[in-house]
């Protein structure tokens, strides 16, 4: 689904969300209450400029609209693979964006992520996975690493990883596998406005992803390991 269709279904034709290049931003009214919207479109690569632009928008919201909920609309191919961005410190720019979102959460802003098209690697980690909860449309595509790249990193045969991906969501791309692992809380189906209404109403205040992954059978050990580490402290 393109961002304009999504925005119209959620907020009506006069939604007020604007596009500047690959950057989406605006303040909308939902159920009579203001809601900030920040996002990306056209499978945007997240480079230094786009990461800092999003971070600036988050900081402006913190300064001008304390407590306002934030919806992140996510469509990204991941970090910008360009020498210029590497030399400028893309890792620090993306970490800055993630910290700004974390600061918003700590200051009482409900931060929701919605993957409406594509979410890959670092561009997803520093946006949707930094939210209180990240949801997705059923047709969205989510992955952090393709199997060929995973084979190069792990030194395992790609055929073995492909076999493992059939039974273990950790090795497999796809939005439903991320639901199973707990990275995506739920899929928005049917009435999208009602799905947003529910997401705002029951956004968690603590990180439930490991517990969700264990309950859904997608990440069986993460919650147990976290518990053991905390108990050891």
TrEMBL record:
SUPFAM superfamilies for the chain: ClpP/crotonase
InterPro entries: ClpP/crotonase-like_dom_sf, Malonate_gamma
GO BP field: carbohydrate metabolic process
Pfam families: MdcE
Gene3D superfamilies per record: 2-enoyl-CoA Hydratase, Chain A, domain 1
Top-level taxon in the UniProt lineage: Bacteria
Record protein name field: Biotin-independent malonate decarboxylase subunit gamma
Organism: Roseateles puraquae
Gene transcribed to yield this protein: mdcE
């Amino acid at each position: 689904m393109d961002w304009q269709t999504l925005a119209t279904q959620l907020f009506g034709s006069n939604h007020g969300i604007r596009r500047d290049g690959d950057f989406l931003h605006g303040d909308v009214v939902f159920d009579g209450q203001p809601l900030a919207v920040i996002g990306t479109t056209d499978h945007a690569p997240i480079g230094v400029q786009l990461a800092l632009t999003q971070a600036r928008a988050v900081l402006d919201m913190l300064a001008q609209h304390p407590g306002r909920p934030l919806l992140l609309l996510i469509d990204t191919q991941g970090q910008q693979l360009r020498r210029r961005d590497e030399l400028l410190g893309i890792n620090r720019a993306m970490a800055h964006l993630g910290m700004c979102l974390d600061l918003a959460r700590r200051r009482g802003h409900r931060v929701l992520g919605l993957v409406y098209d594509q979410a890959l690697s670092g561009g997803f980690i520093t946006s949707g996975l930094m939210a209180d909860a990240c949801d997705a449309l059923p047709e969205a595509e989510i992955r952090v690493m393709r199997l060929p790249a995973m084979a190069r990193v792990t030194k395992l045969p790609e055929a073995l990883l492909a076999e493992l991906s059939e039974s273990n969501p950790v090795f497999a791309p796809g939005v439903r596998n991320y639901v199973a692992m707990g990275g995506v809380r739920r899929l928005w189906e049917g009435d999208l406005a009602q799905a947003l209404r529910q997401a705002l109403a029951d956004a968690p205040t603590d990180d439930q992803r490991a517990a969700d992954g264990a309950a859904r059978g997608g990440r069986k050990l993460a919650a147990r390991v976290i518990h053991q580490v905390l108990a050891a402290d």
